[in-house]
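Hey, sorry to bother you again with one of my protein questions. A protein chain has come my way and I'm curious about its shape. It would help a lot if you went through both lines with me. I owe you a coffee for this, so here goes:
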Amino acid sequence: MGEAGKKQVPLRLSSKLYDEIAAWAEEDFRSVNGQIEYLLTACVRQHKKNGRPVPEDFEQDRE
């Protein structure tokens, strides 16, 4: 089993999103998994701070 207290979650991403996260992770010297965890943590903190998990002008590409 992995690190204590961590859960495994299956996640499906588009190829485009995966590639963008992988490139960002490389810039930040993180693994893709580490980058996803970092981004989710930042989003949860932002949501707790002001009730919004992402900026109001956020647009998500639909594929």
Helices lie at 15-27, 32-50. The CA atoms of residues 8 and 30 lie 18 Å apart. DSSP finds two helices and no strands in the chain.
